[in-house]
Amino acid sequence: MSRRIIPVADLSGAPDITGAPVAARGTLTDTLARPLRDLRISVTDRCNFRCVYCMPRTVFGKDYPFLPHSALLTFEEIERLARVFVAHGVDKIRLTGGEPLLRKDIERLIERLAALTTADGRPLDLTLTTNGSLLARKARSLKDAGLTRVTVSLDALDEALFKRMNDADFSAGAVLDGIEAAQAAGLAPIKVNMVVKRGTNDREILPMARHFKGSGVVLRFIEYMDVGASNGWNMAEVLPSAEVVARIAEHHPLVPLEAHSASETAQRWGYTDGDGEIGVISSVTRAFCGTCTRARLSTEGKVYLCLFATTGYDLRALVRGGASDADIATAIARMWQARGDRYSQLRGSADAARNGNARVEMSYIGG
Fold first, then answer.
1. DSSP letters along 194-224, please?
2. Quick check: helix, strand or coil at residue 277?
3. Do 358 and 292 touch, CB atoms closer than 8 A?
4. How many beta carbons lie within 10 A of that of residue 204, not counting itself?
5. Is residue 179 within 8 Å of 135, Cβ to Cβ?
6. In this structure, what DSSP letter does residue 117 have?
7. pLDDT exceeds 50 at position 7
8. How far apart are CA 281 and CA 52, in angstroms?
9. Residue among 117, 114, 106, 111 at smallest CA distance from 74
10. What is the phi/psi pair of residue 104, to 5°?
11. String of b and e for 11-45 (b: at least 16 CB within 10 Å)?
12. Contact 318, 74 (CB under 8 A)
C-alpha cells in the first residue's frame, strides 16, 4: 500500500502548515473557493469483507500488514482533532473504515463526537458507513450513543452473487436484517450504497430498486471508481449512472429532484408515483470536484484532501508531539487553504496517469 506522508517538520514541495497562527473559528476555503464542511474519519483499516473493488483477497490476504493498535488514533485524539475541524466550519462527520463497527467500543467515540456542536451551536450531522455485518446487533447502541443516521453498503440481493462479491461468505439477508434493525432504532434516513460493476452485478439494479422502493430507504448507485491501485479498475466495467437511471425509469418512471445542498455527491431522482427516491453518484462520468467540501482523516492521523489523493499530512505527530489546539488549527487551515485537488475532473490526463499507482487505498481512508 502506497501512503506518501508529509511530516510536519519536512514539507518540501507541500503547503506550509506550520506558519503563523490562523484563527481557530470560521469557515476555511481552498484555492477553488470550496469550504471545509465535511470530515470523514476512518477508525480502522481492517474489514471482515474482501470486496473485489475495495479489498481483494489477492492483496489483502491473511499476511497483509494491517496497522498495529498503537498506531491508531485513540478516541480522545480523534475527539480532539474533530473539535478543531468543527471550529473551522465542519458540520458533518462520517465514521468509516475499513469496517468501523469492528473498532472496539465504537459507541464511546460516538458519544464523544455527538457532544460537539458546530460553530453556530447546532448539533453535528453524525453518521457512519458500514457493510452491515454487525449492524443488527449494534443499531440500538449506536443510536443511544448519539449516531444520527447510517449508510449501508449492499451490492446485490442475490445471495450467491453477493457472497462472491464480498468474498467472505456473508449473506445479503443478514445485511437486510441490519437495515431493519437500524430503522427500528430510529437511525434515519437510512441510505444504501450499491457499487455497480458492468458485467458483475448490474443485473441487480432493478431488483434492488424494487426492493427498496417505498421502504423509506434511499438507494444510491455508485459508479465503480479507480480508487487506490489494488482493485484492477477498468473503464470498461464502469456502468454510467445515466444508464442506471434509464434502466430503472423504463419500469418505474423517475423525475429529477433538487439537491439537498450544493456539496451533495448524489443526483436525486424521485419515483413519479411518490414512492421514494434513488440517487446516483457519478464520480467517473460526471465529476463533482467543484463542490467537494470533504477532508479525510485516516485511522493513524493522516489527513487526505481527496479520495484519490497521493499525499497525506501527519496530524498525529502534532497531537503526540505536544502541539496546542492553536497549532493544530493552523496546520489544518494551511492544508485546506492550499488545496487544489480535483482528480475526477482530471481523470485521463497525464498528471492523473502519473499518480495512478500512488493513490491511497479506499480501505485505508474510507469511501
1. EEEBTTTTGGGHHHHHHHHTTSS-EEEEEE-
2. strand
3. no
4. 21
5. yes
6. B
7. no
8. 19
9. 106
10. -60, 135
11. eeeebebeeeebebeeebebeeebbbbbbbbbbbb
12. no
Q: Can you name the residues that pair with 13 across neighbouring β-strands?
A: none
What average pLDDT is seen over the chain?
Answer: 88
Distance CA 142, CA 102 (A): 13
- Name the residue with cell 491508531: 72
Q: Which grid coordinates belong to 109?
A: 467515540
| Grid cell for residue 181 | 434493525
> Which residue shows C-alpha cell 487553504?
337
Cell numbers 457512519 correspond to 128
Check if the beta carbon of residue 175 is closer than 8 Å to that of residue 190: no
- The β-bridge relationship of strands 302-304 and 311-314 is antiparallel
Q: Under 8 Å CB-to-CB from 332, ≥6 apart: which residues?
A: 17, 28, 84, 85, 88, 295, 303, 315
3-state secondary structure of 149: strand
d(CA 276, CA 212): 9
Q: Is the pLDDT of residue 21 over 80?
A: no
8 A C-beta contact, residue 76 and residue 111: no
Question: Average of pLDDT values for 233-248?
Answer: 90
Cβ–Cβ under 8 Å, residues 6 and 298: no
C-alpha distances in angstroms, 254 versus 217, 247, 272? 16, 11, 5
pTM: 0.88
pLDDT at 105: 98
Q: Which of 152-166, 239-253, 351-365 has the lowest mean pLDDT?
A: 351-365
Q: Per residue in 166-214, pLDDT tens? A: 999 999 999 999 999 999 999 999 999 999 999 999 999 999 999 999 9
Cell triple for residue 357? 499507482
CA distance 246 to 343: 27
pLDDT tier, 18 (very low <50, low <70, confident <90, very high otherwise): very low
Predicted confidence band of residue 44 (pLDDT cuts 50, 70, 90) = very high
Containing 312, the helix (H) or strand (E) segment is strand 311-314
